[in-house]
Amino acid sequence: MAFNNRSDRPRSRRLSGxxxxxxxxxxVLFGVVTFAVLFGKLWQLQVVQHETLEKKAISQQTRExxxxxxxxTIYDSNGAxxxxxxxxxxxxxxxxxxxASVEVEEKDEFGNPRSLxxxxxxxxxxxxSTYDLIADGLSEILGIDREDIMNRLKKTNSAYQILAKKxxxxxxxxxxxxxxxxxxxxxxxxxxDSKRYYPYSTTASQVVGFVNGQNEGxxxxxALYETELSGEDGRTIFAKNASGKEMPSAxxxxxxxxxxxxxxxxxxxxxxxxxxxxxxxxxxxxxxTNGAFCIVMEPDTGAVRAMVSYPDFDLNDPNAVxxxxxxxxLQRLKNDPSVSKEAYADALSQAQFKQWSNKCLxxxxxxxxxxxxxxxxxxxxxxxxxEDDTFNCIGYVQMxxxxxxxxxxxxxxxxxxxxxxxxSCNPALIAIGQRLGADKFYEYWENFGFTETTGIELPGExxxxxxxxxxxxxxxxxxxxxxxxxxxxFTTTPIQLITAxxxxxxxxxxxxxxxVQSVTDNEGNVVSYHEPSEVRQVISQETSDLVRSFMESVxxxxxxxxxxxxxxxxxxxxxxxxSQTLDSTDHxxxxxxxxAPADDPEVIVLLAYDWPQPSAPGQNTTASGVYIxxxxxxxxxxxxxxxxxxxxxxxxxxxASTESNGVTIPRLTGKTLADAQATLSNLxxxxxTSGEGDVVTDQSPNPGSSVPNGSTIVLxxxxxxxxxxxxxxxxxxxxxxxxxxxxxxxxxxxxxxxxGTAGTxxxxxxxxxxxxxxxxxxxxxxxxNSGEEQAINQQDLWKKNNTTxx
Length: 806
Fold this sequence. Notes:
The protein is α+β, with helices and mostly antiparallel strands. The chain is 35% helix and 20% strand. The protein has 23 helices and 32 strands. It is elongated and about 145 Å long.
């Protein structure tokens, strides 16, 4: 059949054409929708989730390990190491990689697929077996709880669980062997770290300070110089394969750690240990209950050679309470069921803070008579007093309704200015303060630096506490002026006081104290250096020379309150101090400031003991009978310390003691008996012989020993010197004659080369019970137990003048 026109064509063809159009339209629409969905998904993946997915990919493909920079070393002035970092390791667990490292075959031995249930069960069994292996092995090596490791293993999204920090090399080697033997690379690994070590333990603990668990400075120089010491940590990025194993080092990226700078202090470890020994011995000797402090400084530069604050602590374990009294108190609280955990924690925190605190900076106390040289210096500089002036002391000064007493209750009578300083006379100092006037007094208070902190590079320095200028110079401030003139009813810090006193003896220059000399890099290049810095000149050289002379008389002159600081052969100047606190009439701080050599001071020392316990409330002596005062306690201890420092620095003793009866024994071996007898007779010494030879073959004691006049020397005439030994006797509280006899009774000799012979035995260089060879000369120091410069603990030191206070 033929079709002649379009209308004659079949309808189905026409409909199929329209269908194609519809199909195309639908296809386009479908394509657009599909593309839009895909584009939306791509947008979400590439833009919205880009950062999250990138981090996830990186974490799956790499592992980043940080390496700690070695913290800089802290040195003393001679290069001895006070703080140093050593290499240690941190043990890290990656639970995510532990899980990823467990592999299970998906096909059996014939190549047939295994059931998912079987695969999952086998994987769980292998995972548990691996967990047990790791928990058992590492708990034994590291000494940590197995359950803690198991709990960490279950954190399967984590790649960084610290199992142990700062382990030493021997433990780290065991961990490495464990990883290698059990093919646990990546699942367990070690990271480099550093650990802080303090070789001298407690030495200069408050100065050096310590670091926290993150190796950051928490206290002292460690904290103050954190930026210089810390350095910059490094890092290593390892590439991992699909199973989580680390790939060869070619796929790793390294950024080396940059070590910190080194800090060089002015502290001399030897002088520091001398000072610490002096503090500890005094605390035991005088039953001191509230600690002590000591500063050794170069007066010409302000460089601090030693800084002691007691109680101290072990820098290697700063949280442990070292002081025996505090530790026992904490133990009682811990064992007391009525004390809560919070109360114990608070007590522990207070004890730790007490030992971390640096009394040299963080304690503000009444300096007492150690402040008097400053007042004398101001008076001389202003010309209101002179060396020729005299002062009359009747034992007190009456000011309106107030009676201010002197330590000498009956008065010192008429005395020169030098003698008034030697006597530490309160009325004389009050007179000097009055001549100065409140305005000038306050001006010198400012000039000597007391209105601002010293600026020493240690944290936590307290300011001095004084009256406001308006209050002090007002008519109502007359009593304040009087008490301030002898160092009471205001407070200052030890570092502030010794800095001002240094200006009194160094020519009048107020120097800025410092404990850091320099900072260097690892190659020894100096990054920074501390030059001595003068704040201002406060007094003239002439005034300083005179004050220094007065203070030498306090120690070396007859009747000076600091006579117990005298050491034969050394010119020592100083000033005693005994100040009563307001919290208790029995709470006394006894102190002494001393310097040497007196004509050109190399060192100045400030030593104080806080609260020597009296034998009973209200008593002036300790249980051992020592009168509580700076002259009886701090002065002799400081004198010995200064002598030790000068010996260490190489100063030779000069001159002979005017108070000592000591005679240096010459070498007598090889002489005839007649010659030896003549030599000893000229020296005022006796002798006895052992043997019947013609020539002295040995002698006892040995040549160079110093013994008292009248001692008996043993001359061995052809016979051998016996090798006998004896036990050193206890000479405590003996007089010179008693000590001499006690030693001679056992065949020993008394050496008094270091002190006079007045008073009773203060110390002996050999402890009782120590075994010595017969003929040994033992050095013994004597000190007078005097009431001069006594602790001002009389309840009526200054009270309103009524019938009960005279």
